[in-house]
Prior knowledge:
Elements: H1 2-19, E1 30-36, H2 43-56, E2 60-66, H3 75-84, E3 91-95, H4 98-105, H5 114-120, H6 122-125, H7 128-133, E4 135-136, E5 139-140, E6 143-144, E7 148-149, E8 152-155, H8 157-163, H9 171-183, E9 187-190, H10 194-219, H11 227-240, H12 252-260, E10 264-268, H13 272-280, E11 290-293, E12 300-304, E13 306-309, H14 317-328, H15 330-340, H16 356-367, E14 369-372, H17 382-398, H18 401-414
Parallel strand pairs: 1-2, 1-3, 9-10, 12-14
Antiparallel strand pairs: 3-13, 4-5, 6-13, 7-12, 8-10, 8-11
Helix pairs in contact: 2-15, 10-11, 10-17, 11-18, 17-18
Amino acid sequence: MRFKKLAIAVLVGIGLLAAFGTVFADNLTGDLEIFSWWAGDEGPALQALIDMYNAQHPGVNLINATVTGGSGVNAKAVLKTRMLGGNPPDSFQVHAGQELIGTWVKADRMEDLTWLFKQEGWMDVFPSGLIKLLSTDKGIWSVPVNIHRSNVMWYIPANLEKWGVEAPKTWDEFLTIAPKLQAQGVVPLALATNWTANHLWESVALAVLGPEKWQQLWDGTLSFTSPEAVKVWEMFGKILQYTNDDAASLSWQQATDMVVNGKAAFNIMGDWASGYMATTLGLTPGVDYAWSASPGTDGVFMMLSDSFGLPKGAPNRDNAIAWLQLLGSKAGSDAFNPLKGSISARKDSDLSLYNVYSQSAAADWQKDIIAGSLTHGVVANEGFMNDFATVMEMFLTSRDPQQAANACEAIARQNGIGE
């Protein structure tokens, strides 16, 4: 009788724990489909997580549903079709912030993960500001895997010395040295496909506006047609004169290669470029390549965070929860981020595992003013981001600052920015 009561108590306890989402790893079977855009040169970091999951949960068949394309430009289109068609993956990569909240949370397609954050102790190990970014007043919606910095200028010190220039601290300095580089047959600033133009634009905007007015664009207190916002497009147009003509046909990695190979002097790209140069190309940060905050943004950290959420109706919910537990863990974070070129979203990361670039980024994350990225989903919803890509295509052809500013104001109203 005593053993029967004990067995009943254990079963009841397991049932209660399962009700709150606790997953027992040794009992997991079936499939797990994870959906992301981490392919090619970003693949090794994802593979490190996959290997850890497979070791922890050998009974699960993990399906890596990766859709190639920088910044998720192709993956998001596929995801939209699947989510609206009632066929969600078990968990999918999404930029933390309004890209998720303003799209799939607003559409009531995601599960609240507050219980998981409390269960795993994440309320204490993730910065409160980051948790706020992941949240609404109704819940916490995704698990952050990393912190990336958007506003970074990359260059090769030996090449700059050869060309007789230094990394510019402002965009006016860049415009002064750019003709000197062109005279030597060097592209001053490497650019790639459309989204990298958006990426460059946000760094220019941050420099022209400063972090306070940058945020005011998104809370509706600064109009996109204000004189300050028009000046962003004016400066952006001047900078574009010193980029490569074949940008639209290049990937971000190929633009980075132009800098590494000495065809271009600088590139503005997120710190996944460091992961590419260190992990794929085998270069040593601080020796073979160097970096600085993009011109005019020293002391400001424009951030983004890759995260994964739990869609309502996920076919393999328990397996997906185990995936999220791994992503938020210290071990998972410190396995992934050194390869990715990002830093951990956790406050207790082991920085000895990271290279000199990532250590410097972690130090800046602690002391700099934080601003959110547009291109990577922090400050605006996906509707605005998609429409902004169209505005960018228009500007790349017309080079008309006022026209671009007017179009931005129109799409901001259309997509509820500042409401």
